[in-house]
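hey team, just a heads up i'm posting the complex here instead of the shared drive bc the drive is being weird again. everything in one block, sequence lines first with there labels, then the predicted structure for the whole assembly after. its two chains so it's a bit long, scroll down
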Amino acid sequence: EVQLVQSGAEVKKPGESLKISCKGSGYSFTSYWIGWVRQMPGKGLEWMGIIYPGDSDTRYSPSFQGQVTISADRSISTAYLQWSSLKASDTAMYYCVSAWAVASYFDYWGQGTLVTVSS
Amino acid sequence: QSVLTQSPSVSGAPGQRVTISCTGSSSNIGAGYDVHWYQQLPGTAPKLLIYGNSNRPSGVPARFSGSKSGTSASLAITGLQAEDEADYYCQSYDSSLSGWVFGGGTKLTVL
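-- predicted structure starts here --
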């Protein structure tokens, strides 16, 4: 059974750094793209970026380029989303997703990680 | 402002048929990229509902169907049930942005 299991909820202060994770299981981690989707409170879904763990090819939405960093550790089948300096506007639910190819659909979703940034 | 445009809300009585539209442009749906649909029940992660314009993943009832024409796509739900009350999102790929794009979402209310 394919599963994407995300790390737990985080509460941070503005200016702090953060790295959240998404562990894949039940499939070949290096053969599928792993992406991240943001959902701000009461709002819709926004694609942030995606990585192909097989060769670390990483692509970002223009809206998120330079704001976050996506990475993956093939040895532990885990993808990451990180911020170097959080803002209050980063408060949102973040979902990791899997895709079998560029331009394909997101067939599996993680349970979500709620990030709250508040002073 | 989302790249794909959806009506914010739609409603219907149990047993009725509703449709949700998704309008794009020549750089996404009109360029031939497939449209996919997701259902997000309250308080849960989104779930793939329709892929490749009209295909249903295993376990999705036949009451849900999708279609695509030109720069638009539609999701139809027949025999509306109370448990269909959710947010629905369309998704495609955009060649100008070189990335995945979503619609703004449509909230379905079952009266």
